[in-house]
Structures are given as structure tokens and as C-alpha cells.
Amino acid sequence: MKIRVLLADDHHVVREGIKSILHNQCDNIEVIAEAVNGREVIEYAARYRVDVFVIDISMPELNGIETIEKLLKEDRRRKIIVLSMYNDKILVERALKYGARGYILKDDSVNEIVNAVNEVYRGKCYISPGVAGYTTGVFLLGKDRKISRSPESELTSRQKEILKLICEGYTERDIANKLNLSHHTVHVHKNNIMKALDLHNKADLIKYSIKWGIIQV
After folding, report:
1. Is the predicted pLDDT of residue 4 greater than 70, yes or no?
2. Fold exhibited by the domain 151-211
């Protein structure tokens, strides 16, 4: 019986590449559904019998972490591998903390991807060698371990809203008009956001927002 995989990534080229790898390199894995965002993952999880979920950590509508949380809230037995382009300690810790059983990088070798699916299907954990050094504490201390939070968690809902608009190209004055705030208030929020995230200019804000799935490219 083949391992039934749901593959989620908002980039068609990435999905096609991974699907081709799994199809050509092994005869025991089948991609039975593809999703472009977190909401589709939840929808397809109810529709198909999925053995292993392989999901991008940065997706529109629901990001990877939010999707993991919803999937496991519905069924704690689900087996999830996070797929990411980011070799980032906080992202790895958060993914494992929320219940992912694997974390692989998009530039990993073919064997890493195939091995990850097979190992997680068997009930084991599989971590890309590129991020393995970040995970020791998570497994030794268990899921109740207090881990690093993303800097974004320090922002208020209003600050997150303003951050998203800044990254979408709105000026401070545009944001003030859109949210019925004073220009001064928006400017103060922007400065507080940059201070909280330890960022220094708009380019840094955009890079950060893409990385954490606040905006999509």
C-alpha cells in the first residue's frame, strides 16, 4: 500500500518539483492532493485519507503553524512534515512545539525528502541535517518546554495590521486614512514595530513579513 501524501505549497513550481521527486524516486509514495493555502489543507484533510502532510510553513490564509494547530486539534494522530526555505531556529522550534513530526528544507537532497516521508509515516521524527542542531532541547525536554516565541507575537493586533499595510505599499498617511487614525499615531506604531522586531527600514520589514507569512509573494 502506498503512503498517501497531501502536499501544500503556494508555489506551483515547488509542488511540481517535489511531486516529481516522490513519483520518480520511490514507488511507495503517492501525492493524492495538492493545496495552495492552509484553508485548502484543512478542507482536503476532511475529504481524503492522508497518511502524511507535507506543508510549507509560509502559506496564505493560514500559515504552516496555524494549519498544524488546526489539523492536530481535529486529529492528534495526524503526521505532519514542515517544508521550509528557512534555516531558522525559532521556526523549527515552533513547528515541533505545535506538533510537526518532521522539518525539511526546500534545498535538501532528494533522499532527505523521501526519507522524511517514510520515517514520519512509520511514526518517527525526521529533521533535516541543516537544522538538526536546533532540535535537541525540544525532544529532550518535551513539548511542554518553553521555547522562543516569534518576535511577531510581541505585536498588538493593530500593529500587525499596520505592518501588513506597510508591506503592501501603503504610506503612513494612506494607512492613517484607511484606519481612521492620525498620521502621528501610525508613525509611532511603525517605530514601535521596528523596535519590537529589531528591524531598521522598510526593506527589513518586507523581508520579515515574507518569511513569517504575513504577506505573500
Report:
1. yes
2. Arc Repressor Mutant, subunit A (1.10.10)
